[in-house]
Amino acid sequence: MSRIKFVVFLSLFVTFSAFSQSIPLGTPAVDDYLRRAQLSGELNPNLSFTVRPTMPFSVDTISAENFNNLFLPMSLSSERSKNRNGLHILPVSLLQRYNSHPSYHMNDGAMIPGKGYQSLISAGVFAKLGPISLQLRPEYIYAANADFNEFKSHNGSSDLPVRFGEDPYSKLLWGQSSFRISFDPVSLGISNENLWWGPGIKNSLLMSNSSTGFKHLTLNTTRPIRTPIGSFETQIVAGKLEESGFSNVRSEDWRYLSGMVLSYQPRWLPGIFVGFSRGFQIYSKENDGSFGDYFPVFQAFQKKNTNEDAKARDQVTSLFARWLFKESKAELYFEYGLNDHAYDLRDFLNAPEHARVYTLGMNKLVSYQGKKDEFIQIAFELSHLEQSIDRIVRDAGEWYTHSQVYHGYTNRGEVLGAGIGPGGNFQSLQVSWVKSLKQIGLQFERYEHNGDLANAYGLGQWVDFSAAALSTWDYKNFLLNAKLQAIQSVNYQWLSGPYGSPNKNAFHINAELGIMYRF
Length: 519
Description:
The chain is mainly beta and 519 residues long. The protein is 9% helix and 41% strand. The protein is globular and about 55 Å long.
């Protein structure tokens, strides 16, 4: 009898467990492909793409044929095998980059803003037994980190080194690794994965893969949870942020991060997703062990109700929305962020522009020559992280910096949020031919470096104008990606004074070549 009970228990144990393998952020072509698949009608329309990394269990409505092209092997991808136990080999990937100058980089994970050649190698395994899963996917980064003329713009205000030391840089990191216990549709675990919160494609205000992953506990949904009022996705994290060791900002103390994101799709408004994200950081010695210090994300937003000024603690928060137009194969999205509490509602209404930043974007597929599986993709995104005119009356400081948490909103020397960094402004237009994972396109960008710094010291604008040719291509088990980007810097490193002076302009080249093999 005891044996029968054990078998019944084990069958239930497996039946109710959720598949918990994730699709790592930055996996070449896959993130973009999944988003396009939703626009073209192949993918679950209830998936918000505002809480990532994506779990394959969330995308199980995509056709089995197209799933062959994804990051995962078919044995892990299909609905029928979502509970499959065993050991599986994850893809091996190599990303190589050459920068003639390090001033232009974002959403590249463990890679650093270094001059010269660098490479990022990752591989690993995924093991599952019932609701327990282990994803071991370490990363190794090597960067030549060549010398160049440095402008030490942030070495006194946050942990954002312009150069990561004077020697070649190499590290072996935990990468996109995690250990989880999952019961559909919820997962609890410990992870070092990169996170992405919000609807942006190029920039996310709070969480992106512009820095290396950080160690954190996570409680998250594995797919949209349907309720009588609509669908929900969420994640709550508690993590450890580390310093780079290469800036003038040094401390023997580490920072504790508490963060939360919530996305909601109203039942009565299909295709519309709204939500918010919130993050707090505090030095560990300042944490008194109370619930409020461990989980400040559940506290009120107004300072008068939190006594926030008494704590050496930094908050960033955002509201976001995404509107999916299924018939038009298009999407619109925005994210609005604040890096300072309003004292009360009156304070916010009097100065809604205080400490605000935002991102706006659109993405559309146009059928190519009437073919069902080929499109022209047009994507535009605008991000504005420079202070508003309200700074004249009430200076809010640069985004991702803080007077008391002096490392800023960073991990290992790079911002956790938008890769354009404090005070950055960014516009991007990309036009591509796409077919499944295949893509050939052109990209045009304008990137203004730290407008707040330029305004404070009368330096004029340092603006990069760039054009890039890019491509991804799959062939059997291989997935290749390449990019060649030409960059014209105007008032390079703010060295020429007034904007537009020709004396200190500079021309740079960035090149990327990546290859991934899927077992």
